[in-house]
Amino acid sequence: MTCGTVSAVVTTVRRGQKFAAANRALAARTAAQLGIPNVPRGSDSLDEMRTVYGVDAVLVARRGLLTAVTAEGELFFHPGMAHLRIKTLRSGQGDHLVHALGLTEGMRVLDCTLGTGADAIIESFAVGAAGAVTALEANPIIAAVIGDGLAHATGDNYEMHAAMRRISVHAADALDYLRAQADRSYDAVYFDPMFRCPVHESAGMNALRVLADGHALTAETIAEARRVACRRVVMKERRGSGEFARLGFTDLTGGRYSRIAYGVMEL
């Protein structure tokens, strides 16, 4: 029942005949992918199921998409502000992440911290169909939930969904993955590590926080990123964070009044 450092089972919702077949298929596929039990949904609540099976999270196939239910909240795919950021980019205005990474059509981006997937969507939109975005997530549960959403979530914004579908998600530790890559195999490498002091709290972010890898970035990881990247290595952190200086990011950019900043290493 253990997936990475978090124990889990997968099940379906009790009701919802419209998506019943899709939910069953998704639960079976997720169980096989993560190597966790696919358990029947009886009359127990999800809280009770965590107790009965002795797990940290219950993955639920709901309306054909995955939700990870923990004691701290529910994690499910939502593009967040990505659609508004894409609208802003289309209007000719800038985006701080796109500026920090120096993104243009056709670039290859390695996003080492997928998280909720919103930044990866912006990266994919910015580099277009001729480019490529590879997104890593150390926790397999987060990778499964967000990766499934990027691949299957629907809505009314074609350009955003096209960008979502182009993202290649891998459940992998960033340092391990970087070590296996050839020199200069990506144009830009991006890190958005879990902040020690959250910028804001929500049930979804609390669930992400408890599942995510909370380890600080290491100098070795940044060194490998510098080897793999052709143009830039970028890290997102709280403005004023000591992580920038510790890891060698001296060039900072971002919104003047924003609580976050981007450290940029030009290569």
Tally of helical runs? 11
**CATH overall fold name of the largest domain:** Rossmann fold
Q: Into how many domains do the coordinates divide? A: 2
In this structure, how is the largest beta sheet organized? Answer: 7 strands, mixed
Over the alpha carbons, how many angstroms does the gyration radius reach? 19 Å
Total number of strands: 12
- Broad CATH class of the largest domain: Alpha Beta
Strands across the major sheet, in which order? 8-7-6-9-10-12-11
N- to C-terminal distance: 43 Å
Low-pLDDT sequence parts:
none
What CATH architecture of the largest domain do you see?
3-Layer(aba) Sandwich
What is the global morphology?
globular
Order of helices and strands: EEHHEEEHHEHEHHEHEHHEHEE
Description:
- A hairpin with a 2-residue loop joins strand 1 and strand 2.
- With 267 residues, the protein is an alpha/beta fold.
- It is globular and about 55 Å long.
- The chain has 2 domains: 64 residues, Rossmann fold, CATH 3.40.50; 186 residues, 3-Layer(aba) Sandwich (Rossmann fold), CATH 3.40.50.150.
- Helix 3 packs parallel to helix 5.
- The mean pLDDT is 91.
- It has a 7-stranded mixed β-sheet with strand order 8-7-6-9-10-12-11, sandwiched between helices. A 5-stranded mixed β-sheet has the order 1-2-3-4-5, sandwiched between helices.
